[in-house]
Design a protein that fits this description.
By secondary structure, the protein is α/β, with parallel strands linked by helices. Helix content is 51%, strand content 11%. It has 13 helices and six strands. It has helices spanning 2-15, 52-60, 78-85, 105-118, 136-155, 161-171, 186-193, 200-212, 214-222, 231-240, 243-256, 258-278, 296-302; strands at 18-26, 34-39, 63-66, 175-178, 281-286, 306-311. A six-stranded mixed beta sheet has the order 4-3-5-2-1-6, with helices on both faces. β1 and β2 form a beta hairpin. The longest helix is centred in the C-terminal third of the chain and has 21 residues, at 258-278. The protein is elongated.
Length: 312
């Protein structure tokens, strides 16, 4: 009797459960609904195979937009990074000074070692003296590349949900667009939306802290997602379709990234509105972009659309 009672309760809950973070977008002059899937980037797309609501939503769409279209070659080489930094020096060193004049001796030694580990360039070689005029923030960005690469290699062995869905959409013959743009790397997106400290001293302080904590940072990253606080909890919220729980849990972390989230969301909104006017569209974006007053859900509602989470 008790067992049947709990089965009945579970069935009633399931009838009103949410289909992961899948949202229907309608109204504001749209003749057909579009949909938005909030993802946890590292989760497998196979999780969607058992969600009939996602399949039905996907079948009603005719094109897809993801955050960005990654380039064919994911390895960011030195030449590309050098080209990006040409003419982009916002802050200037004092006349006749360079990176080694604004960081301490310990940091200078670490910088030379770590830089040479990434590419075979000796920063003491006069041939590369122009590199010494990079801003400290540029050195920090460059040194972050192997950390990101190692993290992805260890933890993203399969193709991510976003990438698999994008590939399937292309196989259907859909137009697949990038909200951030095409052929971009995550580092480039981050750099484009992250404010660089204005002074050389601020950048130098940040770089020195980064260099001195580099090995500990790398060790923590290589422990995988198990070492990331709250990772399993976030995944559980997604699997259960508990968007409210995810919002309450993740909002404090998202508030630390308000700048990049708000900036990207504001950039995406006009593209999303234009795409939905063209044809029913499936948007696949990270769940962190959906929450809060600056989130895509609220921005779409403010623009006059009806946005509702799809129920099982």
């Amino acid at each position: 009797m008790k067992r049947n009672f709990f089965i009945t309760i579970f069935a009633l809950v399931a009838l009103t459960a949410d289909a992961q973070f899948l949202f229907r977008i309608s109204g504001n002059g749209l003749s057909e609904s579009s949909y938005m899937l909030g993802t946890i980037h590292v989760l497998s797309a196979s999780l969607l195979d058992s969600i009939a609501e996602y399949k039905e939503a996907e079948a009603r769409c005719q094109q897809m937009y993801v955050e960005y279209i990654p380039p064919t070659n994911q390895q960011m080489n030195a030449d590309r990074f050098f080209r990006q930094n040409e003419g982009k020096q916002k802050a200037k060193y004092p006349k006749g000074k360079n990176i080694f004049d604004v960081i301490d001796k310990e940091s200078a030694g670490l910088l030379k070692v770590k830089f040479k580990e990434i590419i075979p360039i000796n920063l003491d070689d006069p041939k590369f003296k122009d590199i010494l005029n990079w801003q400290p923030a540029d050195f920090q960005s460059f040194l972050s590349i192997p950390l990101i690469r190692e993290f992805r290699k260890k933890n993203m062995k399969g193709m991510t949900m976003d990438f698999v869905l994008m590939q399937k959409a292309k196989e259907r013959g859909w137009n697949v667009g990038g909200l951030d743009g095409d052929n971009l790397l995550p580092q480039e997106i981050l750099a484009a939306h992250t404010a660089t400290p204005q002074t050389i001293k601020e950048q130098a302080d940040s770089l020195m802290a980064f260099l001195k904590g580099y090995d500990k940072r790398k060790e923590k990253l290589l422990k995988g997602f198990e070492g990331v606080d709250g990772y399993e909890q976030i995944c559980d919220y997604w699997r259960a379709g508990d968007f409210e729980g995810f919002t309450n849990y993740y909002l404090p972390e998202a508030s630390k990234q308000t700048g990049i989230l708000k900036d990207r969301n504001e950039k995406w909104l006009p593209k999303m509105m234009e795409a939905m006017r063209e044809k029913p569209t499936m948007f696949v974006i990270g769940s962190g972009h959906l929450i809060g007053e600056h989130g895509i859900v609220q921005k779409l509602r403010d623009a006059g659309y009806e946005v509702e989470q799809v129920k099982w």
